[in-house]
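Supplementary Text 2. Reproducibility record for the structural model of the 237-residue chain.

All settings were left at their defaults, and a single model was retained for analysis rather than an ensemble. We include the record here because the model underlies the residue-level annotations in Supplementary Table 4.
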Amino acid sequence: MQPDFIPLCGRVAASPRVKPYRNIHKALRLAMTSTLDALARVDADDAVAVSSVLSQVEQLLEFCDGHLRHENAFMHEALRERDPDAPRDFDAEHASQQRVALSLHHALQRARLHDADTEAVLYQLYLVLSVHIADHLRHMADEETTLTEAFWAMFSDREILDVEARLVASLTPAERDVSSQWMLRALNHRERVELLEAMREGMPAAAFDALLQHLRVLLTPPTWRRLESAFLTTTKA
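Retained model, structure tokens:
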């Protein structure tokens, strides 16, 4: 960590401006750490549990792969139009992460086909995934600081929100469902309410109520009760 990174984090955290990477990166971090934890604790002699955790790893890799593609196509492209050098280092890191992800996909397939010493194969996958996640965590922190300040220097908040809106509009229904579910679990109460209020504007009332009821299962009881009170009139309609 560079000595000036902590002050940089402080500047970004304290700013009232739009933070384009914050919510989706919270979702990715929760997906990553939850998956790594599940892989660490799975019992190699439980075939059902092993199959489930390998599916979770695959879903995480798809989530990360999609995220990189969408960042390249929308966030980095927007920066590139104003300053071609701004995202260059991050483009290179994305390319490296995609190569590592391909290796992880191969390791995942080997784990699914391996008949002997399942525990060793799972531990190998756990170690490789650990390094991949560690790289992503550092990379995301750099984006949330360096690239966020680049956006602030070249874009108004309205323009940043427009870039975000175009990215979200490009998501498939499956991608939107995965990202929103991890995000709604990962955010704090204020952030969660802000996101849900924005989602409610574009959803039929019945669909929004169904989403809230789904969150009853996803969230802890205290978290759900606080959220329910914030949307009390909606959930009782």
